[in-house]
Amino acid sequence: MIKDFQERYAKRHELAREWKKEGKRIFGYFCGYAPEELIDAAGIIPVRILGSLDKVTLADSHLQSFICAFGRSCLDQGLKGTYDYLDGIVTSKTCDIMRNMPSIWSRNIEIPFVGYIGAPAKRTKAARECLIADFKVLQSKLEEFIGKSIDDDSINQSIETYNESRKLLKELYEIRGKDNSPLSGSDFYHVVRAGFVTPKKEYNKMLSSLKGELISSKSSRDGKVRFLVSGSTFEDVNILKMIEEVGGSIVADDLCIGSRYFWDLVEPASDPIRSLANRYQMRIACPCKHPSEERMERILEEVKKHRVEGVISIVQKYCDTHLFEYPYMRDVLQKNDIPFLYLETEDRLGEEGQFKTRVQAFIEMLR
Amino acid sequence: MSDKKPETKKRLKTSEKLGKLMADYYTESAMVKAQKKPVAWLSSVAPVEVCYTMDVFPIYPENYGTMCAARKLSAEFCAAAEAKGFSTDLCSYALNNLGSIYLNKGPFMGQGLPEPDLLIATEHACLSMAKWWEELSRHFNVPLYIVDAALPVGEDPSPHHINYFAEQLRELMGFVEEHTGNKFDMDKFKEVLGYSDEASRLFLEIGGLRKTVPSPISPIEIFTNMFPIVTLAGKKEAVEFYNELYAEISELAERKEAAVPNEKYRLLWDLFPIWYNLNLFKYIEEKGGVVVADVYATTFGGRVDISRPFEGLAERYVGNPLLSYGVQQKTELYKQMIKEYHVDGVIFHSNRSCRMASMGQYDVKQGIYEDLGIPGAIFESDFVDPRSYSDEQVKDTLDSFFEILESRG
């Protein structure tokens, strides 16, 4: 079953080109702060633009080596034509790399539609109103693009579909956290990632049948050390696999491609745009947002709830916001007597030996 | 004092006054604690006018970073921050500042900066500022206000983005009131904005005088004369200073007196100077190149519509081209500057500490070359941290660039 999710992601470009042949429109979005529901309500399939493990070649003449591997790889894929099926890109101002990406992308890659959301970083009322206005601007741009209006009903329907996904993912998240869970952390990563590139209704069916299958199956992870994994995006699932292979078990997460993406549901408000804005403003904060205390509090709660024995932070090199929060996170965990291991990657496991030795030593220490 | 004094001390009469302004400011900063005057630490592009309106003494750790770099202290400070777990890949303005706090050292009387009572930052310049200020807030345990500039980069800001920024400026006044007890006064605010706007106008006009061939002011002079517009925007002293500087430079411009002899190639400079090596401009000048335009200094100026104080101030900050332009708009801006300032080539300083502003330089360079045939060169370094600076590499890049300029005649 996990293979289906894995395959989905592996074949994402092929599948997208098929949709394209069927006459469907497809938009790419850069991060978990883009309101996918609005794109979906416009009858456009949103897919998340992610990098790959291929060698970066073309992006080198556009981005310096001190730009993160994720950003470089995304642009590289774009320049290579991997995303030539996209009718548009939508981005939210999150980190400084995402902030600059759309203008570089659209200068070099033909793209009919660029939607940019100002996206306030704070959790205040004034920020909320600003985000609502941002979403309204995006809505009317989308309406102009598709040549018809997007009514509240279609937005509400999209919200429902997306909420269904989130609920199912949360259930799977809980299953993963159980003792003797049949769902590993690396498997779950495959599951979440497939959701970025699968139309959500179809994805929900996949999630439901996975859930059914998992409830009836059993596997043991006795004696494994229970970890919460935190961090930025990374492409290489082998990082998680390696943790599991040397005796770790991932039972909770604070990942960009993980709970931060799906945790919060859209709750009904006076109108659907407001409901969406509430959700995207108040979702578990990425370190790009302000303030950061809530994210740390949630990590502590998750540690308690899932009897986590250690936290492993996996951070993309050159990711300023994660790097800035590392000493803070370390101190918070230390104060709470939670062992902590910090790993810096460039999107991939890289020289396996080095990471492996460190994780092994960490596990030895915890046993 | 450093063994390498900026050349302004020799050439411009006004530079003596600049020295005095800086000395006064730092002398006051040393006494401000004893006077029980509230101190705020501000990030760059944070609205300093709020401080002058509310009688709060503003400190700019970034400006301080440039001085630590010039006095060759930054390497030690950055290392001290790294020892606490801050990555060497982070912004060296931040590392330098955090390190100087941990070591309680600095270029003035051997001490660090006076501790803040308040912290004010904006993530408009970059997100690192918000994160750095959050860390300061945890370290000093003092209140923090982040001015959030939500706006779409590469597109014109919508009215709601201006309103959001303006709304926060109002909130910020309340924040300062709450934590200092000082009361907001609209007349004072307007007076401060008046000075800020006038200083900006003059500063932009001084920059505009560089359109004269040969340029009447050198890049080192421009960069060192930024102090008042960054730190004293909103003070009468800044206006007085720039009035004098303007008078002096415009007289030089009229007489066609060159700031740098043998001006052969007029250059546009993108972005930060290397603060520990301003002498790089001297090297460029030896090759016949003079930096006559830059977007860095220019963007600290910006007009304010005083009739709508909060919105006017918001527009000034949100409209900063360095921060809100995408590569296409930046290319157009540079092309316009190239024409107005009679520029022969563009030098891009790709600054490892500033991913935000360095990203896109390759595309801007390419765009300028495609549209105008004006060549550009990109070199990489760090503006404050000298530890991995390679003088040879930078000079190699510049040497080849001058060969290209020469071959074009």
Overview of this structure, please?
The complex is a heterodimer of chains A (367) and B (409). Chain A is an alpha/beta fold and 367 residues long. Chain A has a domain of 140 residues: Rossmann fold (3-Layer(aba) Sandwich), CATH 3.40.50.11890. Chain A has 15 helices and eight strands. The mean pLDDT of chain A is 95. By secondary structure, chain B is α/β, with parallel strands linked by helices. Chain B has a domain of 153 residues: Rossmann fold, CATH 3.40.50. In chain B, the strands form two sheets. Chain B has a four-stranded parallel β-sheet, sandwiched between helices. In chain B, β5, α13 and β6 form a beta-alpha-beta unit. In chain B, α2 packs antiparallel against α12. The longest helix of chain B has 23 residues. Chains A and B meet through α5, β4, α6 and α14 of A and α7, α8, α17, α18 and α19 of B.
Radius of gyration of chain B: 21 Å
Going by CATH, the architecture of the domain at 30-182 in chain B would be 3-Layer(aba) Sandwich
Could you describe the largest sheet of chain A, including whether it forms a barrel?
A: 4 strands, parallel
Largest beta sheet: strand ordering of chain B? 2-1-3-4
Largest sheet of chain B: 4 strands, parallel
Q: Can you name the CATH architecture of the domain at 11-150 in chain A? A: 3-Layer(aba) Sandwich
Strand line-up in the sheet with most strands of chain A:
2-1-3-4
Q: What proportion of the residues of chain B is helical, as a percent range?
A: 40-55%
